[in-house]
Amino acid sequence: MLRQIQQLNTSIRGLANAASAMAQIQEVVHENVSTPQIEYLKERCIAVSEKDKIIGSVSKGKSHQKGTSVLHRAFSVFVFNPDKELLLQQRAPTKITFPLRWTNSCCSHPLFTEQEIEGETGVRHAAQRKLYHELGISASHCALHDFKMVGKFIYSADSDENWTEHELDYVLILKNYTGPLELNLDEAAAVKYVSHEEFTELYDQDPSNFSPWFGLLHSKGWLAKWWHDLDDLSEHVLASKTIHRLN
C-alpha cells in the first residue's frame, strides 16, 4: 500500500510539473498558438556544433526560446513543379515563430531519433515526414533519392521578444512535383506556385512578409542560382557539404 501511495504521489507531482511547464509556455506564446504547436515543443532536436558535429539532443522549446537557444539542425525543402515554379507556403497563424510569413515549401527539423540523426539521410527522412504532415505529399511522390541537397547554412533570427531561430539548415530541392497537396491548416495557411519573376516581385513589395531564412537565401543570391540551374544541380550537390553563414 505504501508503495502504491508513493507511486501515486510521484504521478501527481509529474502531472503538476507538466501543468506548470505548460502554463509557463502559454505565458510567452502569442494568443493564436494552438495546443498541438505547444506540444511539439517537447520534441527532441539535434544540437550541433558549427561544423555540424552532434553535441546531443535538445527540446524544441529550449532550442527556440531566447536565453536557452542552441544551434540545431533544420532543413528547408524547395518544391518545384515541371514548369519550374516554386511552391511557396504561408505559415499558419497558429505557429509559434513567424506566423503568417511566406516561406519555402517546407521547413522543419530532423529529430533525435535513430532514423533522422544520420546526416543527409536523416534529413531526407525528416523531409519526407514533414512534407506529408504539412502538405499531404506522400513518400510515393518524394523518394529519398529525389531530394537534391544543395547546401548547409547557419543563420539566426528573432521572431519576437521570447522566441528565436538559430539553425544549421540543410537545403533540399525536390523537382518536377505533380502530385496533390492537402494542407494541414495548423501548419500551412496557404500555398501557391510562383515563377522566379513572380516571386521576385512579391518579395520586393514587402520583404517582411517572408521568413528570415528564406529572405536570406534569396538576398544572398543562392535561390536564384538554384532556380537557374534546376536542370542540372550537380555542381551545387557536389559543393553541398560546405557550411555557409547567412548572417
From TrEMBL:
Domain of life: Eukaryota
Domain Nudix hydrolase residue range list: 70-216
Pathway annotation from the record: Isoprenoid biosynthesis; dimethylallyl diphosphate biosynthesis; dimethylallyl diphosphate from isopentenyl diphosphate: step 1/1
Gene3D superfamilies, sorted: Nucleoside Triphosphate Pyrophosphohydrolase
One annotated Gene Ontology cellular component of this protein: cytoplasm
First-tier enzyme category under EC: isomerase
UniProt-listed InterPro entries: IsopentenylPP_isomerase_typ1, NUDIX_hydrolase-like_dom_sf, NUDIX_hydrolase_dom
EC code: 5.3.3.2
Listed GO MF terms: isopentenyl-diphosphate delta-isomerase activity
Cross-referenced NCBIfam families: IPP_isom_1
Assigned protein family: Belongs to the IPP isomerase type 1 family.
Protein name: isopentenyl-diphosphate Delta-isomerase
Lineage: Eukaryota, Metazoa, Ecdysozoa, Nematoda, Chromadorea
